[in-house]
């Protein structure tokens, strides 16, 4: 999956792990992959911040 492509309804047991500079980090189970970490980017980030997030 790429950015903005993980269907929310395919996540189970979503649990907040913490907050970073770009948004909230969650642990969840993705039905097709198992346990994953998910970074939810704040929608108000500018283009430069989005590029930094992708490179992270």
TrEMBL record:
One term of GO molecular function: ATP binding
Keywords: ATP-binding, Nucleotide-binding
UniProt: ATP binding residues: 39
InterPro entries linked to this entry: Kinase-like_dom_sf, Protein_kinase_ATP_BS
This protein's name: 161_t:CDS:1
Organism this protein belongs to: Racocetra fulgida
